[in-house]
Amino acid sequence: MSDAPIPPEALDVRPANEVPWDDLRTVFGTTDYPGRCYCRRYKVLDHQWSAATPEERAGRLREQSGCGNPGADSTTGLVAYLDGDPVGWAAVEPRTAYPRLLRTRVPWTGRDEDKADDGVWAVTCLLTRRGFRRRGVTYGLARATVPFARERGARALEAYAMLTTPGVEITWGELHVGSRQVFAEAGFTEVSRPTLRRVVMRIDF
Questions:
Q1: Are residues 132 and 6 in contact, defined by beta-carbon separation less than 8 angstroms?
Q2: CA-based torsion, 68, 176, 13, 131: positive or negative
Q3: CA 173, CA 139: separation in Å to the nearest integer?
Q4: What share of the chain is helix, strand, coil (3-state, %, to 5)?
Q5: Does 3 map to a domain?
Q6: Distance of CA 204 to the CA centre of its chain
Q7: Is 0.90 surpassed by the pTM of this model?
Q8: One digit per residue, pLDDT tens: the chain, 205 residues?
Q9: How many domains does the chain fold into?
Q10: How deeply is 146 buried, as exposed, middle or buried, from its count of CB atoms within 10 A (0-12, 13-18, 19+)?
Q11: Gyration radius (Cα) of the chain, Å
Q12: What is the DSSP letter of 193?
């Protein structure tokens, strides 16, 4: 399999409700953390997270993403394709759709924000399918979240990115939120640094 960089314009990024569930399941896979999480970490509170099995989490993702239902009123993210092959996922919804995010201290440190404002959307996960990682898929996904949120009525879009250091390895479990550079290149601006490693990026429409 090629390890050549994938430019954003090479990706075909679609709302998840317009793609088959099997394609999204292929992106998540079954052999590492995404295949156990199914993008549920911010969607539920701690006790609900620990009580659910991976199969239950997958079922909730399938239901909420509306896969295979182009007429759905809403969906929970985007699926990226490369030459017809599903390769990536971005979770993007109104910020209020993430109960655990609203209770997490980090995004709010140093900011006076109305957490109940559903006009602010959030990108909480950027996932690249195994075999296509480290080729730049997340850059195209982050870029695609901007028109997706704006066209659905968002007045702002946020991300809670990691600060990366050249030569310092960061595990996927940490970097699923994306890096600062990924969102900066998509047009987001830094608004706060709540910790030494976390930065809030935002774009206002």
A1: yes
A2: negative
A3: 18
A4: 35, 25, 40
A5: no
A6: 18
A7: yes
A8: 578 889 999 999 999 999 999 999 999 987 688 888 999 989 998 888 889 999 999 999 999 999 999 999 999 999 999 999 999 999 999 999 999 999 988 889 889 889 999 999 999 999 999 889 889 999 999 999 999 999 999 999 999 999 877 655 555 556 789 999 999 999 999 999 998 889 999 999 9
A9: 1
A10: buried
A11: 16
A12: -
Block residue for tokens 């399938």: 62
Q: Which residue has the tokens 């047009």?
A: 187
Structural domain for 181, as ranges: 8-204
SS3 call for 150: helix
Residue 175: CATH number of its domain: 3.40.630.30
Distance from C-alpha of 186 to C-alpha of 168, rounded to nearest angstrom = 23
Nearest one of 127, 205, 123 to 159, comparing CA atoms: 123
